[in-house]
Every structure is written in structure tokens, then in C-alpha cells.
Write a structure and sequence with these properties.
heterodimer, A: mainly alpha, three-stranded antiparallel sheet, B: 295 residues, mainly alpha, two-stranded antiparallel ribbon
Chain lengths: 456, 295
């Protein structure tokens, strides 16, 4: 591997794929945000006839004329897609598919025409179809690398303008930016990167270099600079890693490997991105469900105790923690209140016990009949810590109920369910506001207020 | 039957079966999904070859159809995972295709099975690959495969014609009246995959996509009725195939390529001269209105 890295040609190839990856990653994120991802695919295919014509005219395989041919053909293709969507009822994606295949068909026809004229000279054109980064030579790479570098610099220079183009073109027009020109300029840059990418990774896979790193970076941030940065990094990383893997294996195709590396990065981001990834999302959802269930059980415990001890009607005893924490609640009572299965209540009860919020009351203790209890979640009592939590939850619930009943004029028998839905999500600032409002109704206390409806 | 006729028959069958099912792709705005499926089947072909070690039609057909379906499913999952729809399409099919190419070069490099062949196909070889049962030569194998797939898609579309129609024109209504929209989507995508696989083998990915998209789009410019659109699309496909074949024979170039170009030319005609949606008639009507306005 090290000996490979010290090889001058390998260094050139690595440099080329790195720059290509970075520039296509950067441009790809703008294309993605403009919802033009598949334009890369279209451009790569439409470039083929341009390349063929350029070869027919110049009879050389060197990068520059073929690059110019690809750019011109790409532009004609974009123009066709545009003309078709503007002048008929055909939608953009259909027009893309149509232009892509017809141009590519034309390209294949021209290639066979070239093949007829002189077999050997044509062989180099095949690399446009699958790309052969590893077989590129110094001069080509210098050109590819410098074009990629220019493109990268262009993106950096026009960053603000492109940002506006992506997010608020209307405002851009308002402040006097030539938005249409900018859009065409962006498209021109994309065409250029496709034209150089063709020779490295090939027609089909050039699309991936534009789309995949950007799509992966999209999962990492909602901020454009961060996204563009990651997209460039991912592009460069795919280019380098893909090239290295292809150099180690026997006759491994570079383009597809670059794409596979990019895809692997995409999958990692799709699954694991901290904010938008599927796994963190599922984890957060699970956590919220847990918390909601915990809080529901705590409130049910508290309300059961209220009813049992008659606290609900005796406001002044709310503060008496001892009475509350020594009252035992059974599984059946909670089943009655929550309509959960006994198994679920036992599970949740044991969970709360692990968190130190309730105490599983053992056999013989506190007038619990011995036979009824094996301490697997049949009976429990609140701990003082649990009581504090429960008070907070019940208080939020009742504050919201009070708000609905007094401020929003809901019927008293309608407020319980609505409060159920929202009590877990009320932020502290809202709770403060509720308290302020409810002071006017003379229901101010740091303890849960009396319920507005009857607690059964 | 002569060599030319077999090639033309194959191409016409490919064109009509692709054109037929392609109408639904065009109407449902899934043209690029068709493109994606056609590329993804490569992976299925390679994997089933690696598993069975044969180039037999049936295992490849099953493998490739499954790969096409799998790619549709992955695209949907990625879209639901928060990506743009077109980004999801692009990521998925390029990954499938890249994996296919890598597996191909790694494990099947020595078989007569090169990527170029897969991309462009070589319809010129079709008549020599014969289906022989009990020493009876039944004609080229491709003709049978494509013919059967075409018959199947006509049959299924005929059975669910009304449902397909609602799904194509008013997906919201389809959901509202309780149609199993997702099921129908996958039924259609299975048909697209099968058609793509059958066509792929003989004409390559590119002509397959061309025939999936172009005739349907052309027909879409010519009529507002689904029944007519389907028939027109098949006819346009056949016309493009025949024109393309003669063009290829005349200039001695790639048959698949020239068929795609021919389809493009037919589209151009419809785009310019369609009696209802053509550019020329619209221009004429605008002029007329303008002059009437002046009077």
C-alpha cells in the first residue's frame, strides 16, 4: 500500500479523484437543494454525443476537446428538457428521461460510426462509459484537476448568491440579483463537473457523485455551509477511498468503487445522523414513549392515592407527604384507572422502582396480605422522590385543565383528555404563564391544585 | 422467417411492451423510476448468475425482477427516511448499478457477459439464440420471453384497468375509495421490472429506458384518453423500432441506438405538430387570437 502511495502516477490519480469528488460534492448540494439531483444523470448521458462529435472533428482522445464537446452537448440537453417542459404539458422528470435516452442513443450510434472508421483510435472512448480513473495519464489529470479546482473556487466565491438561489429566489430578484443568470451559471458548473467526471467514473455513475454525497450531507445539518462542507468532504473521501480500493484489487473498476464508498457513507448518515438519522429518531421516539408512560403511571398513582385517602376533597392535606408515601396502591386499582393490562402495569411499576420513584411494597408490609405479593409489581407506594415528580406532573395536568376550563371556556368534562395529550410536552415557560393567568382565579400553589372535575 | 424479420419482431415486441407499461410511468410521473429500475436489474442478473452459475433465462429473470422490485422498495424507504424523491432515486439506482458492475468484474469477469453488452445490448445476436424444445426450433428465445411478458402485462392491466386508471389520474381519490394503492403500485412496478428484464437481455438498458419513456410521452401529447394512449404508445413504439432498424441497416450503426433516436424523432414530430398540444398549433392559435384582438 505504501509503495503504491509513493508511485507518482498513483498520486496524480488520487489527486484527480479527490478534487473531482470535492467539486462534485459541493455542486451536488446546490443541485440537491434546487431539486435538480437527477440533472446530473441526464447531463452525463447527454454528453455522450458531444464527446463523439468532438472526437470525430478533432480525431484526438485528449481531455480538452472531449470536455468542450461534453459541455456543449450537456447544454443542448438541458435546453431541450427546458424547452419540452415549457412548451408542452410534459412534466420535468418525463422530459429528463426522454432527453437522456434519445441523446444517449444518438451517442451510441455515433460511437459505432467511429468504431467503423478506425478500431484502435476509438478504444479510448469506451472509458467514457465506465470511466477508468486508474488509466488516466499525467496531462489529462492536470486538466481534470485544475478544472475541478476552478469549479471549487467558483462555488466558494458565489456561495452567498447560490444560497439565495436555493432558498429564496424571489427575494434574490427583489434585491436585484440576476437570478436566472445565476441559475444558468450553476447549471454550467454542474455541466463542467459532469464533463470531467465522465472520464473518471463513467456515464452512469457520474450521477452518483453529484447526488450521493450531497444526500448524505443533507442528513447531517440544516445549515447550508455545514451541509456543503460535509458534502465536499464526503465526495473527496469517496474519490480517494474508492481509488485506493481499486488499486489494491485485481482489475477493480474505479468508478463503481467510488460510488459504493459514497453509498456506504450515505447509508451511515441515513441511519446514524444525530438529528435526522433513522436510528437516533427511533431512539428518541422510544424515549418519549417511555417518559409519557412513566408520567401517566405516576399521575395514576397520585390520583389513586388522592381518592383512597380522601385528599382530593381536603385541600390542606396536600402537603402531608407522609400520608401519601405510606399509602399502598395495587395493580388492580391502576388497571381500573389506566385501562392498561396488568402485565404492562407490573412492567412499568418495576421500571419506576428501578428509577427510585416508587417502592415495591413487600409481603406483610403495610397491611399487604402475604399471599398476594411476590414483589413483581403487584403493589407499590410512591417514594418521596416519586411524589415530587408526580406532584409536578399532576400539577401541569391540572394547570392545563384549569386553563382550558377557565380561559378557553371548555366544558369541565372535556378537559381531561386534552390535558392528557399535552401535559408531557408543556415547556416550563408555558407553565409559568399558566400560573400567572391562574392566579387570577385564586388557585395559586406550588402543589397540584384541586382537579376541576371529579376524580373517580 | 428471415433474420431481419426476427430482429424487427423482437424490437417491435420490446417497443410495444415497454411502450404499453411505460404509459403508466409517464402518467404517474415515474419516468425516472423506470430509468432506475432498468439500471438496477443488472445487480439481479449478476447475483443470480453468481448463485446459479448459469446464464439460464428463468433464474436470471427471477433475480432481475426481484432486484427491480427491491430497488423500488429501497427508493421508497429512503424517501420516507427524509430524502428528496429524486435524490432517493439517484442514490439507489447508482448504488445498485455500481454493486452490479463490481460483482461482475470481481467474480464473473471471464464469462461472456460484459458491461457494455449489458448497457447497449446487441439485438443483432437475438436471432441466433434459439429456444429449442424437444428438437423443435421455436424461434429466438428473446421473442418468447418478451412476448410472454407483454401478454402478462396486457392481461393484468386488463384485469385492473379501472383501478390502474384511477391510480394514474387521481391517486387521492384512489386512496379515498379504499383501493389498495400500494399493492397496485408494486404490481405495476413488478410489470415494469419484468418488462425491463425481458427487454434488457436483448436490447440493453438504454433502449429499454427509451422505449419505456419516449412512446408513452409521445402518445401523451396526442390524446387525452388512456385507452387511446396505450394503443398509440404501442404503435409509436413499433414504428420507432422499424424506422430505427432500417436506419441502422442503412448507415450500418448500432441498432438499439438508432431505435432510440428514431423514437426521439417521432416524439419531435408529435411535439411540433400534435393537433391539440403541438407547438405549431399553439403558436398558430396565439397568432390568430392576437390578430382577432387587433381587429
Amino acid at each position: 500500500m505504501l509503495s503504491l502511495l509513493s508511485n507518482a502516477n498513483v498520486q496524480w490519480v488520487l489527486g484527480g479523484t479527490l478534487l473531482l469528488g470535492v467539486s462534485s460534492g459541493l455542486l451536488g448540494s446546490f443541485a440537491l437543494l434546487r431539486r435538480r439531483s437527477l440533472m446530473g444523470d441526464v447531463l452525463a448521458h447527454t454528453a455522450l454525443p458531444g464527446v463523439a462529435v468532438a472526437f470525430m472533428l478533432t480525431q484526438t482522445k485528449s481531455v480538452l476537446p472531449l470536455f468542450v464537446g461534453a459541455v456543449i452537448a450537456g447544454f443542448v440537453g438541458t435546453w431541450c428538457v427546458d424547452a419540452i417542459t415549457r412548451n408542452s404539458r410534459i412534466k420535468e422528470d418525463t422530459a429528463q428521461g426522454l432527453v437522456l435516452t434519445v441523446f444517449f442513443g444518438l451517442g451510441v450510434v455515433l460511437l459505432t460510426q467511429i468504431a467503423k472508421q478506425g478500431g484502435a483510435a476509438q478504444s479510448g472512448l469506451d472509458r467514457f462509459l465506465f470511466g477508468q480513473a486508474a488509466s488516466l495519464v499525467g496531462n489529462d489529470l492536470i486538466l481534470i484537476g485544475s478544472i475541478a479546482l476552478v469549479l471549487t473556487i467558483a462555488v466558494v466565491l458565489f456561495f452567498k448568491e447560490f444560497k439565495l438561489l436555493c432558498f429564496d429566489p424571489g427575494f434574490g430578484t427583489g434585491v436585484g440579483l440576476p437570478i436566472r443568470r445565476l441559475d444558468q451559471f450553476l447549471m454550467f458548473l454542474v455541466v463542467c463537473v459532469v464533463a470531467i467526471g465522465l472520464q473518471t467514473v463513467g456515464v452512469v455513475l457520474m450521477a452518483a457523485l453529484l447526488i450521493t454525497p450531497a444526500a448524505a450531507a443533507r442528513y447531517l445539518s440544516d445549515r447550508l455551509p455545514v451541509m456543503v462542507f460535509f458534502s465536499g468532504v464526503f465526495g473527496g473521501l469517496s474519490g480517494v477511498l474508492g481509488t485506493l480500493i481499486s488499486l489494491t484489487g485485481r482489475n477493480m473498476p474505479t468508478g463503481p468503487l467510488i460510488v459504493l464508498v459514497a453509498t456506504a457513507i450515505f447509508v451511515v448518515c441515513l441511519l446514524g445522523a444525530p438529528q435526522r438519522g433513522l436510528i437516533p429518531n427511533a431512539w428518541r421516539r422510544l424515549r418519549t414513549q417511555q417518559r409519557v408512560a412513566d408520567e401517566n403511571l405516576l399521575r395514576a398513582l397520585y390520583e389513586t392515592i388522592e381518592v383512597k385517602t380522601g385528599l382530593a376533597t381536603a385541600g390542606e392535606n396536600f402537603a402531608d407527604s407522609d400520608v401519601v408515601t405510606t399509602t399502598v396502591v395495587t395493580n388492580e386499582e391502576l388497571v381500573e384507572r389506566l385501562r392498561w393490562s396488568p402485565g404492562k402495569i407490573s412492567r412499568r411499576m418495576r421500571r419506576l422502582a428501578r428509577l427510585g420513584l416508587v417502592r415495591l411494597v413487600g409481603a406483610g408490609e403495610m397491611s399487604v396480605p402475604a399471599a398476594q405479593n411476590n414483589n413483581r409489581g403487584e403493589t407499590c407506594a410512591l417514594t418521596s422522590q416519586g411524589l415530587a415528580r408526580a406532584r409536578k406532573i399532576v400539577r401541569t395536568h391540572r394547570l392545563w385543565e384549569l386553563f382550558l376550563a377557565y380561559e378557553a371556556d371548555f366544558a369541565v368534562d372535556h378537559v381531561d383528555r386534552d390535558a392528557d395529550d399535552i401535559e408531557h410536552y408543556l415547556p416550563p415557560s408555558v407553565i409559568l404563564e399558566l400560573e400567572k393567568r391562574l392566579k387570577e382565579h385564586d388557585r395559586d400553589s406550588s402543589l397540584p391544585p384541586e382537579s376541576v372535575h371529579e376524580i373517580r | 422467417m428471415s433474420y431481419d424479420l426476427w430482429v424487427m419482431l423482437t424490437a417491435a415486441l420490446v417497443a410495444s411492451s415497454c411502450g404499453f407499461i411505460g404509459c403508466f410511468l409517464v402518467l404517474r410521473r415515474l419516468a425516472m423510476v423506470g430509468d432506475a429500475i432498468s439500471h438496477s436489474v443488472l445487480l439481479g442478473i449478476v447475483v443470480s448468475f453468481l448463485i446459479t452459475h448459469s446464464l439460464g433465462t428463468i433464474p436470471m429473470f427471477i433475480g432481475a425482477t426481484l432486484a427491480g422490485l427491491l430497488s423500488t422498495w429501497v427508493m421508497q424507504m429512503v424517501t420516507q427516511g427524509g430524502s428528496n424523491e429524486d435524490a432517493a432515486i439517484g442514490v439507489t439506482f447508482t448504488a445498485f448499478f455500481a454493486l452490479g458492475v463490481v460483482l461482475l468484474t470481481l467474480y464473473a469477469g471471464d464469462v461472456h457477459f460484459d458491461t457494455e453488452h449489458v448497457l447497449f445490448g446487441e439485438i443483432a445476436y437475438v436471432p441466433w439464440n434459439l429456444l429449442i424444445i424437444n428438437d423443435n426450433v421455436l424461434g429466438p428465445r428473446a421473442v418468447w420471453v418478451i412476448g410472454i411478458v407483454f401478454a402478462l402485462s396486457i392481461l393484468i392491466t386488463g384485469m385492473f384497468f379501472k383501478e390502474f386508471k384511477v391510480c394514474a389520474f387521481d391517486p387521492g381519490l384512489a386512496v379515498a375509495i379504499g383501493l389498495p394503492v400500494t399493492l397496485f403500485h408494486y404490481v405495476q412496478m413488478t410489470l415494469v421490472s419484468m418488462t425491463a428484464v425481458a427487454a434488457f437481455e436483448s436490447v440493453g438498458a438504454i433502449l429499454t429506458v427509451a422505449m419505456l419513456v419516449v412512446p408513452g410521452t409521445t402518445a401523451y401529447l396526442l390524446t387525452d384518453r388512456l385507452e387511446k394512449m396505450l394503443i398509440l404508445s404501442v404503435v409509436i413504439g413499433i414504428v420507432s423500432a422499424v424506422l430505427g432498424y432500417f436506419g441502422a441497416a442503412y448507415w450500418d450503426v448500432s441498432i438499439s441506438g438508432s431505435m432510440a433516436v428514431a423514437a426521439g424523432l417521432v416524439f419531435l414530430l408529435a411535439f411540433l405538430f400534435s393537433p391539440k398540444y403541438g407547438v405549431v398549433i399553439k403558436l398558430f392559435l396565439t397568432r390568430k387570437k392576437a390578430s382577432e384582438g387587433l381587429v
